[in-house]
Amino acid sequence: MPTSCEPHVDFTVLDAASLLAIAMGGVDGAHTGPAAAHPRVVTGAAVVGAWRSQDGSVKLQLRRDGTYAGEVAGRRKPARGTYLIDGQAVVLRDDSGLQTPVQVHEGELEMAGHRLRPAAA
């Protein structure tokens, strides 16, 4: 019976979690170095409040009780649901179960291609 002398090479580069992170937009291509020893963690106080895009087309209200309400120009039904803080991101889960990742970047939120800033009082 012939045997192969070549070593087994596993060509699997990405596992399911990595592929999911890429699909959900959670991978930043600019990061090429090792992970920081102490990654920045978002706290509830950092994101609670009113947020809006510069043009006003997207509005998001994150409440202290873990619920949110949002509006997107052109959509009839406002978005409502709960949110969960996960490391450097916030995950919105609407009443239908749809989950939307929101990245936190230097005092701004990035959601579905929109940059949200704290809304003026």
TrEMBL record:
Top-level taxon: Bacteria
Protein name (Swiss-Prot/TrEMBL): Atu4866 domain-containing protein
Pfam families for the chain: Atu4866
Organism encoding this protein: Actinoplanes subglobosus
